[in-house]
Amino acid sequence: MSMPETTSAPGAPVINMGTAIRDGLLEAARRDPSVIFFGEGVEDPAALFGTLKDIGKQIGHDRMIEMPIAENGLIGIAIGAAMAGKRPVVSLQRVEFALLALEQILNNAAKTHYVSNGRHNVPLVLRMIVGRGWGQGPEHSQSMEAIFAHVPGLKVIMPAFAEDAKGMIAAAVEDDNPVVVIEHRWSHYTTSPVAEGYVHRPLDGPRTVREGDGLTIVATSYMTLEAVRAADKLAEAGHPVEVLDLRVIRPLNLDPIVESVARTGRLLTVDTGFRMFGIGAEIASEVTSRCFDLLDAAPVRLGLPDHPTPSSRGLVKGFYPDATRIARTAAEMMGLDDAKISAIEEDILAARKDIPLDVPDPFFKGPF
Amino acid sequence: MQTTTGDDADYRLRCLKQMLRIRLVEETIAERYAEQEMRCPVHLSIGQEASAVGVCDALMSDDRLFSSHRSHAHYLAKGGNLKAMMAEIYGKRDGCIGGRGGSMHLMDPDAGMMASIPIVASSIPLATGTALSDKFDNNGKVTVSFLGDACLEEGVFHESANFAKLRGLPIVYVCENNLYSVYTNLADRQPDRPLTDIPAAHGIEHRHVDGNDLEAVRKAALWAVETARSGNPTFLQLDTYRWREHCGPNYDNHIGYRTEEEFQIWRARDPLERYRKMLEESGTLAPASFAGLEKDIQAEVNGAFAFAIDSPLPEPTEALAHVYA
């Protein structure tokens, strides 16, 4: 598999995305003493899946604030500290814990700069982790970017690759706005060569990770990896497609998407969240409005089906979009015949072998 | 905003004037509300002035304050700009936040009036957060978090108080207990136990005083603020009563949730009238001079209303600004 990530240092050490996020946070905290960390178990042995490992040792334990189990209060406290000039980074073990704090996030974090007529800033980072597999179930595996992206004033980012994540997390810490960072647990395992020291990647919009004229796939977070695998198999079969890693959900930069769809005439979106009322719906709607006359096919959205995430690996079969479904959907949209589509599917399945569906496919580990 | 130095007559006259000013501002709002030019909800503090003034007189000008939907008295007592407040309530460009929030979001960060947040208890963690930041910076600032009795029913109060005590934050939680959450009496919302049992359960030192007695409030506040400044969060319970309806300019003793008799009992404890009498009896205020004060302050208030009315409405395009920093 070729490199999906534009690395700034191809010979750099290969590390995983979890470590890259930790390194990015550490670099940002070293550069600015106003950066402080909040977390439940902020310095415990697990260090939030390693993403906060030894940061306190490097910058001082006083900047690592153990959160009592009180997400609404503590996120409100982080917002207040941000209003007084700190740059708090709050790390939550799962997206669902943020639901306890929606009032603070959607009202005070999102609106304080606006309501204050620009007098107050809320430079806050809210990291939330999406669980998947090993029976995580209905309340440990939701992505929920659509909820946060619905609210003006929040920024929402979903990094998929290691070096990008390192640079994006530093940019999030430096941003004067509240930035929700949704990290897929399975993306934490993916590896890339990552430049050492300080890396900055602007929170400016999608990035093209595969080029092709047959169709445009817009994917988020871990689904970008599934889309890349599908795209590679389609390319091998002679049908290259474009894959855009959305990266920044809000503010949504549609221009590169519209530009790509204007060329390919077809749009397929793949979300980590629920398909209904999801990010794909917003993109499909906007793209259709902006280039309806250039479309060769109706846009299609893939995402989670219209029921909660069950725990059992029996029930979860077919729940998540994967490379085979993405490849089949894309191929059907491009009008490939069924025999050819089945061959591509079989090719993908053969590569996956008999790996259980509730653990990450080692293929996605990289290095990318 | 003044420090607590200076002789007693100074602070007494200062506090009397501030209470009178707040009363006149709000009575003028009530009087002119029917003109339908102040087109936002207003929650008046008439009858509750002593708690705002007594607490704020114990603060330094760069101490911080957070308020709620009922924010007019806190804003003015903390030194917020009156003209900008009135322009905000009128929805005008010269409003303290350009017409973006109205009466329920008053703020004047230059005066330490950090924010007012209308969702019950929502500003409590923000206040706790500025106290955390100030403790990091070791800058000696105290934050006051004004809250109502109903806030003690909200989980976020407990979450904040727990953290404030755990971390030794310089914060004073000031509970103005006016007995009602909209139309619902405290007795229908909380069991019969002292409100101060709640801060006590969090290990927070507290005082409970008559919130309509300026001297008692100020004395308790001086203790609470200085204790907080040394890194021990404190809690004040100030019992008081709002004279008018929860939201709006009218009296509502006739609609059935409280009685005229109850109102009259509290009317007789009018914090402004009590303090005026006390100052006249002690010779701090010459008997004839109150009317003069009233006249001067009303002139200032009228000027602020005129300023607000003359200020232009913001343009629709201005609504797009400041979504992101």
List key phrases describing it.
heterodimer, A: 368 residues, alpha/beta, Rossmann fold, 2 domains, seven-stranded mixed sheet, five-stranded mixed sheet, 11 helices, 17% strand, globular, B: 325 residues, six-stranded parallel sheet, 8 strands
Write the layout of secondary structure elements.
The complex is a heterodimer of chains A (about 375) and B (about 325).
Chain A: E1 14-16, H1 17-31, E2 35-39, H2 55-59, E3 64-66, H3 71-83, E4 87-92, H4 102-115, E5 125-130, H5 145-149, E6 155-157, H6 162-174, E7 179-184, E8 191-193, E9 207-210, E10 216-219, H7 222-236, E11 242-245, E12 248-250, H8 255-264, E13 267-274, H9 279-291, E14 300-304, H10 323-333, H11 338-352
Parallel strand pairs in A: 2-3, 2-4, 4-5, 5-7, 6-7, 10-11, 10-13, 13-14
Antiparallel strand pairs in A: 1-8, 6-12, 9-11
Helix pairs in contact in A: 1-6, 3-4, 7-10, 10-11
Chain B: H1 8-32, H2 49-56, E1 64-67, H3 72-77, H4 82-89, E2 113-116, H5 123-137, E3 143-148, H6 155-167, E4 171-177, E5 180-181, E6 184-185, H7 197-201, E7 205-210, H8 214-229, E8 234-239, H9 260-267, H10 271-281, H11 289-310
Parallel strand pairs in B: 1-2, 1-3, 3-4, 4-8, 7-8
Antiparallel strand pairs in B: 5-6
Helix pairs in contact in B: 1-2, 1-10, 1-11, 2-8, 4-11, 5-6
Outline the biggest β-sheet of chain A: 7 strands, mixed
Over the alpha carbons, how many angstroms does the gyration radius of chain A reach?
20 Å
CATH topology of the largest domain in chain A: Rossmann fold
Overall outline of chain B = globular
CATH level-two architecture of chain B: 3-Layer(aba) Sandwich
Provide structural commentary.
The complex is a heterodimer of chains A (368) and B (325). Helices cover 35% and strands 17% of the residues of chain A. Chain A is α/β, with parallel strands linked by helices. Chain A has two domains: 14-193, Thiamin diphosphate (ThDP)-binding fold, Pyr/PP domains (Rossmann fold, 3-Layer(aba) Sandwich); 207-360, Rossmann fold, CATH 3.40.50.920. In chain A, the strands form three sheets. In chain A, strands 3-2-4-5-7-6-12 form a seven-stranded mixed β-sheet, with helices on both faces. In chain A, strand 2 (35-39), helix 2 and strand 3 form a beta-alpha-beta unit. The longest helix of chain A has 15 residues, at 17-31. Chain B is of the alpha/beta class and 325 residues long. Chain B has one domain (8-308): Thiamin diphosphate (ThDP)-binding fold, Pyr/PP domains (Rossmann fold). Chain B is built from eleven helices and eight strands. Chain B has helices spanning 8-32, 49-56, 72-77, 82-89, 123-137, 155-167, 197-201, 214-229, 260-267, 271-281, 289-310; strands at 64-67, 113-116, 143-148, 171-177, 180-181, 184-185, 205-210, 234-239. In chain B, the strands form two sheets. A six-stranded parallel β-sheet of chain B has the order 2-1-3-4-8-7, with helices on both faces. The interface between A and B is large, with 41 and 39 residues.
